[in-house]
Amino acid sequence: MSDDRVAQTRGTLKAAKQEHVLTYFDQLDAAGKAALLDQVEAQDWPALAELVETYVKQAPPLTLPTSIEPAPYYPAQPTKALADKYSQARAHGEKLIREGKVAAFTVAGGQGTRLGWDGPKGTYPATPVHKKSLFQVFAEYLIKVQRKYNTVVPWYIMTSPLNDAPTRAYFEEQNYFGLVRSDVTFFPQGTIPSFSLDGKALLAAKGELATNPDGHGGSLRALSRSGAIDDMLRRGVEQISYFQVDNPLVKCIDPLFIGLHALDGAQMSSKMVTKAAPAEKVGNFVLADGRISVIEYSDLPKELEQKVHADGSPVFNAGSIAIHVIAVAFVKQLNAGRFGLPYHRAVKKVPHVDVKTGQAVEPKEPNAVKLETFVFDALPLCEKSIVLEVVRAEEFGPIKNAEGADSAVTSRELQSQRAVRWLAAAGVDVAAGATVELSPLTAIEPSDLKSMSTVIKPIGAGERVAI
Fold first, then answer.
1. How far is 49 from 200, CA to CA, in rounded Å?
2. Is the pLDDT reported for residue 339 higher than 80?
3. Does the pLDDT at position 1 exceed 70?
4. What pTM did the predictor assign?
5. I want to staple 141 with a disulfide (CB 3.0 to 4.6 A). Which of 252, 288, 311, 405 is the partner?
6. What is the DSSP string of 258-323?
7. Once rounded to an integer, what is the mean pLDDT over residues 371-396?
8. DSSP per residue over 305-339, as a string?
9. Is the pLDDT reported for residue 15 higher than 80?
10. What is the arithmetic mean of pLDDT over 134-139?
């Protein structure tokens, strides 16, 4: 290891007022020194110094837009005036898919800890009968799309430093579920140092920075840094279908949504569900100073949250479900120069090493600031952005909690109920009380079942059937 490298790193840290990071450097072995230098050099310390002054030493005031109006959106069911446009949009979306211009992107950095699952969340058993993993559900969906449109849909999966190796190993064990290995790309999410309340980067160990993931907004930076965007450009991909790992009802590739987004010349577009109640804890799509934006439920002024129409429905009714289509060119633009998204501040408990004593500290109270970015903060940076309403029961059944709402139990119920609706619409007799699992390999939309309805036997009450 060169003395110049060490001296340069010390200089960078000193300029950022973070020279304490190397307090125990001389006590480390050669491998430990190299690992710490690698970790330090991976961070943009001049930019971090600015963030410390702006977000860490103080909580920036919440600044709401001057004008906040309900977001315009395309309805789930087209009006007569929109029928032709929806038809054109679906055809255009199918054309883009067929031409290989669409990629899938799954944000999958989480662990299954909250679900009592020891492993990456994507490996969690999600389906109602066979208990297929979330990753398997998405893989089968993409295989069906590729067969249906005679195309290739490359799949990019953002892991985290914690679950990257287990995720890759899982896909190897499962033989990539039949996908072509070279069409599946993994890369870890970026991290950012956790800071003490007075702005000092914390050490997790004498030779390791304490870090936290840089938020789902960091996925747009990781796409660029990992080389995924360059790979997309080589393949001719123009649009990215973005979804998070916890929702087995998601339409991984939706021709209508992709087509509306592309025909309107949007840079980043979103799906919404109608809020179940004015105070539902979801982000709110709004038109903020003329731009589509998301205001978190905790930040939307109470008088706007509670504003209702004559029938009692919320005026601000558009709830965010973290499903987007994003233009490759827009991601490239966000990463030109300094990354374009703002940061958010969270005060948390972070174990660390006291640099004065070298002793491990387990804080009893919140002692640190974690900074993260949110993907929806890219929306107001768009020149054009659209929102498409979807039916909650058709496309949103997340597995977030061990029990109660948004749990595996509620998600499996929703999956089975959707399967029953689709089968019934195709003319299959399904008795009440049946549990049905419909593989994406069989159908990713109701029309896929029309040709199969005559070969699917009636399903009796209490039966558990996978098709």
1. 10
2. no
3. no
4. 0.94
5. 252
6. HHHHHHTT-SEEEEEEE-SSTT-SS-EEEEETTEEEEE-TTTS-HHHHT-B-TTS-BSS-EEEEEE
7. 96
8. HT-B-TTS-BSS-EEEEEEEEEEHHHHHHHTSSS-
9. yes
10. 98
Question: Please, are residues 333 and 339 in contact by the beta-carbon 8 Å criterion?
Answer: no
The DSSP element (H or E) to which 30 belongs, if any, is helix 30-41
Coil, helix or strand at residue 14:
helix
| Residue at token pair 């330090």 | 40
Residue type, 210: A
Integer Cα distance of 438 and 103 in angstroms: 24
Q: How many CA atoms lie within 13 A of 79 on its CB side?
A: 5
CA distance 343 to 217: 9
- Strands 155-159 and 344-348 turn out to be unpaired
Distance CA 286, CA 69 (A): 6
464 DSSP assignment: E
Residue among 250, 291, 278, 306 nearest 387 (CA):
291
Model confidence at 54: pLDDT above 80: yes
Compute the distance between CA of residue 335 and CA of residue 53 in angstroms, rounded to an integer.
23
- Structure tokens of 239? 């649009």
Are the CB atoms for 322 and 374 separated by under 8 Å? no
Q: Which amino acid is at 461?
A: A
Distance, in Å, from the CA atom of 436 to the CA atom of 459, rounded to the nearest integer, reads: 9
- Please say whether the dihedral angle defined by the alpha carbons of residues 417, 105, 382 and 81, taken in this order, is positive or negative: negative
